[in-house]
Design brief:
Strand content of chain B: 5-15%
Number of strands of chain B: 23
Strand order of the largest sheet of chain A: 2-1-3-4
Helix content of chain B: 25-40%
CATH superfamily of the largest domain in chain A: Glutaredoxin
Number of strands of chain A: 4
Strand order of the largest sheet of chain B: 2-1-5-3-4
Radius of gyration of chain B: 28 Å
Oligomer: heterodimer
Radius of gyration of chain A: 18 Å
CATH class of the largest domain in chain B: Alpha Beta
Helix content of chain A: 40-55%
Bound molecules: iron/sulfur cluster, FE2/S2 (inorganic) cluster
């Protein structure tokens, strides 16, 4: 159950858009930035304040691949599986990361909410194939080992912060 | 508008105000196949079944093409035939379902069109993985596997009912029509009117069947099974046996029910008469006191739930009268016990209704005494038709029989309940005589009748001015409330029926292929009124007897206990049980962000409380959450601080309560 601690931000976003139902997509986009996904409660609240049924909000949110309905980890790993990367064995990288993080396609997010693993088709950086994007940063010319090292580095850093 | 002419299949056809080519073609008596067109809703143009050839334009969808002078139209050609067949085949390929066992039965458009267009095989492989059937709603069965994505239900629920409980979600091959967040229909704001099922061309939305339970009760000899039949059923059931809409088949329905094994067969119109006595008395009392006006009618459970969800502040306006279905249940069980010593748990009350929402109503906790519901099972007209067919009864050959007494006698006032405007007219038949204190031979109030979804009229009876609104379709009900809220209009009485045209067009009625079925059924009920011996509920001798022997007088204590009910605000979607993330020892504050509270300033309260906590340096001691609806919406904004629930909460009250709780905690810690 997502606690709506960031509610004030949702309120501000709605206000910025004049509570205008025609701006639903822009509103959802902004709210997704706050939570990194679209929690049910937030969508219900958006529906309430725009005066439209929640089924309509859900319809729009589920239509666009850009919107995420499940919570994601703090680090989103996007492995490219476009043609260029695939040829350069991107699947091996994917396998290695999955194994390391204990994830599957049904279960793309680690229980500590640190990592989410996704595949995408062509990041537009085929010259760097095989490529991996961590949040917004592109890493290219990877091997399973170097990809694992990147992830391990994040894990070590996080562990240090918490210690 | 000037009449113009175009040519359809070599025949000149004149047209005037038709909205589109499809309507012109249908006027010319050509049954063009369609899936996604309903004259009462917006045009969607998705199914491509209505394609025709227009000279100079090629193939066009007739539903979204304007007719024009001199147009030359062909409704069949090699290409059109191929296209139609392919559309049906594609739909069948993405449709998981076994036709012979489907509740939609012979009214399925997909089956009908498949047969009519000669689709003998499906060339495409099955394309869908089956998903779970949604049985969460007491009123409807939702089987997404049979959905052809025509969007008819979505537009019905959004445009006509303004509920919007279902919509398209996801996209491409995953596209599905569903309630919000993939919840089940029983968990969301659906008001159970069943209008979506009425327009659904397939078995994806159908009234939730209760046939098996009814057979089981009938076959159990230790139980007394009692039927009650609603007025609207008698003018529609015959359609399934080839009769014209509006044909009155009361006597044959009674005969069929007896053959099936019902021990007693009563008429819901009897308790409709009774409703009028109670409701009109209540109305006259309110009118005299000038309180809780306008009075809203309360016999439509979909409208009641709608008010509970969307207009909790108006709940006091609803008449407290239970609906005729519930009055019959309560009265029957109480009197059979008292007069014939049959205990309530031995009686199975089965009502036959035009309505899917009645299934929900019967299950409302307000309508049970202890564990015993007043009405045990509800069958829609559609289900009774299936049972008659299953029994092998040749309906049109049945000898007519009459209802059992005493609850089988009705006046015309109780029968016209099935039409929009009927309750109003029956109330006026009673109230007018009551106001003047004189008998009046006139019983017809024309002003209450009509086809429009929203009608208003006023009437003067001696000194008394009565102003009335009659709405059918929940979108029209919203408009009535808007007019009241804005102060634009003042009414004394507001009648609302959720189904366009009233119960005769309920979600459980047979699906008609007659373009004029609504007018014919309506007319059937008014004719039935004319044929009856009495027309005014107050003249019903058995009602007088029921009061004498049993209920004392309208509004008496016992009448209240048996015949009246209560309402409470309802949250729209379930699943947001307040369950805050809280750290040990923190004071928990929850602010309701449901619609009513939101409109009453929950957001400002939230910001105010946050600012106050910051100012007090108390943020760490408190966990503050948003929740959705405590079902006290009429008393919002609602804030819960610790265990204390503050209604009509102001910022000052919240501040004081927070300080008090924090101080209390400190004291506890010190001890
Ligand atoms: S039953 Fe009525 S409210 Fe419920 S989904 Fe259907 S049309 Fe909407
Ligand atoms: S449920 Fe019925 S009406 Fe609704 S989209 Fe599917 S087939 Fe059409
Ligand atoms: S109008 Fe009649 S049939 Fe329709 S939901 Fe209301 S009570 Fe049921
Ligand atoms: S295929 Fe991977 S970046 Fe283009
Ligand atoms: S009826 Fe015209 S496209 Fe469906
Ligand atoms: S909206 Fe229902 S209690 Fe707040």
């Amino acid at each position: 159950m997502e606690n709506l601690r960031n509610f004030e931000q949702v309120c501000a976003i709605l206000k910025e858009h004049d509570h205008n139902p025609n701006r639903l997509i822009a509103i959802l986009q902004a709210v997704q930035e706050v939570y990194r996904y679209l929690p049910e409660e937030a969508m219900t609240f958006i529906a309430t304040s725009l005066g439209i049924p929640p089924a309509k909000v859900f319809g729009v949110a589920s239509f666009y691949a850009h919107f995420t309905l499940e919570p994601k980890g703090r680090y989103v790993l996007k492995i490219c599986d476009g043609t260029a990367c695939h040829v350069k064995k991107s699947t091996e990288i994917e396998e290695a990361l999955r194994k390391h993080l204990g994830l599957s396609s049904q279960n793309p997010t680690t229980p500590d909410m640190l990592f989410t693993l996704e595949t995408v088709s062509c990041l537009g950086t085929c010259g760097l194939a095989p490529a991996l994007v961590i949040n917004d940063e592109v890493h290219g010319l990877l091997s399973p080992q170097s990809a694992l090292a990147l992830v391990q580095e994040i894990q070590d850093r996080e562990a240090a912060v918490h210690a | 508008m000037k009449r113009q002419t175009l040519k359809i299949d070599n025949t000149p056809v004149s047209f005037g105000e038709e909205r589109n080519l499809l309507e012109v073609i249908r006027k010319a008596h050509i049954e063009l196949p369609t899936f996604c067109y309903h004259s009462e809703m917006s045009i969607y143009g998705a199914c491509r079944l209505c394609m025709v050839e227009v000279e100079g334009m090629g193939m066009v969808p007739a539903c979204s093409t304007l007719p024009a002078e001199g147009m030359v139209v062909r409704t069949t050609s090699e290409q059109i035939r191929k296209l139609r067949k392919m559309v049906i085949e594609l739909l069948l390929a993405s449709h998981v379902g076994d036709c012979p066992s489907c509740s939609k039965g012979p009214s399925c458009q997909l089956q009908k069109l498949g047969q009519r267009l000669g689709v003998d095989k499906v060339r495409f492989p099955q394309s869908r993985t089956p998903v779970r059937i949604d049985l969460s709603s007491p009123s409807l069965l939702r089987d997404p596997n049979k959905c052809v994505l025509c969007g008819d239900c979505v537009r019905m629920c959004n445009e006509i009912q303004t509920v919007g409980a279902i919509d398209f979600a996801y996209r491409g091959s995953k596209s599905t029509v569903m309630p919000c967040f993939g919840k089940d229909l029983g968990e969301v704001e659906c008001v159970n009117c069943g209008q979506c099922a009425r327009v659904c061309p397939t078995g994806a939305l159908v009234p939730r069947p209760n046939i098996d339970e009814v057979w089981k009760a009938l076959h159990d000899s230790s139980r007394t099974v009692v039927a009650q039949v609603a007025p609207a059923v008698r003018v529609a059931l015959g359609e399934a046996f080839g009769l014209e809409p509006g044909t009155i088949t009361t006597g044959r329905i009674v005969a069929a029910l007896r053959r099936m094994g019902f021990d007693r067969v009563y008429d819901t119109s009897f308790t409709a008469d009774l409703t009028i006595l109670e409701e009109a008395e209540e109305f006259l009392a309110r009118k005299k006191e000038g309180q809780n006006l306008p009075q809203f009618t309360s016999c439509c459970p979909a409208w009641v739930k709608f008010t509970e969800q969307y207009y909790p502040e108006y709940l006091g306006h609803l008449s407290t009268c239970s609906s005729p279905q519930q009055m019959m249940g309560a009265l029957c069980k109480a009197s059979l016990k008292k007069l014939q010593n049959i205990p309530a748990e031995k009686i199975v009350m089965v009502s036959i209704m035009p309505c899917t929402a009645k299934k929900y109503e019967a299950r409302r906790p307000e309508h049970s005494r202890g564990d015993e519901p007043d009405v045990d099972l509800v069958l829609t007209t559609q289900e009774l038709i299936l049972m008659i067919k299953e029994s092998g009864l040749v309906f049109n050959q049945l000898e007519q029989e009459s209802f059992d007494m005493p609850f089988g006698f009705t006046t015309g006032g109780g029968v016209i309940f099935g039409n929009s405007g009927g309750v109003t007219e029956a109330v006026l038949r009673y109230a007018a005589e009551k106001i003047t204190g004189r008998k009046d031979s006139n019983y017809i109030f024309k002003a209450a009748r009509g086809q429009e979804g929203l009608r208003e009229f006023s009437l003067t009876v001696e000194e008394t001015q009565l102003s009335v609104a009659v709405a059918s379709g929940l979108g029209n009900a919203r408009e009535v409330i808007r007019r009241i809220q804005s102060g634009e209009k003042h009414y004394d009485l507001v009648e609302v029926m959720a189904c366009p045209g009233g119960c005769m067009n309920g979600g459980g009625q047979p699906i008609s292929s007659d373009a004029d079925y609504k007018a014919k059924r309506t007319c059937g009920l008014y004719d039935n009124d004319k044929m009856l011996q009495l027309h005014k509920p107050q003249e019903n001798p058995y009602i007088a007897e029921a009061y004498e022997k049993f209920l004392q007088k309208p509004g008496s204590h016992l009448a209240h206990e048996l015949l009246h009910t209560t309402y409470s605000p309802k949250r729209r979607t379930s699943g947001f049980a307040p369950e805050p993330e809280q750290e040990e020892g923190q004071l928990e504050i929850s602010i309701c962000f449901g619609t009513s509270c939101f409109l009453r300033g929950a957001q400002q309260l939230y910001s105010g409380i946050n600012a106050f906590l910051a100012e007090q340096g108390a943020k760490a001691q408190v966990s503050i959450n948003a929740t959705f609806c405590y079902e006290r919406c009429d008393r919002g904004p609602v804030v819960k601080i610790g265990e204390e629930v503050l209604e009509h909460c102001t910022l000052d009250q919240a501040r004081a309560a927070i300080l008090q709780h924090l101080a209390g905690r400190k004291a506890e810690v010190q001890i």
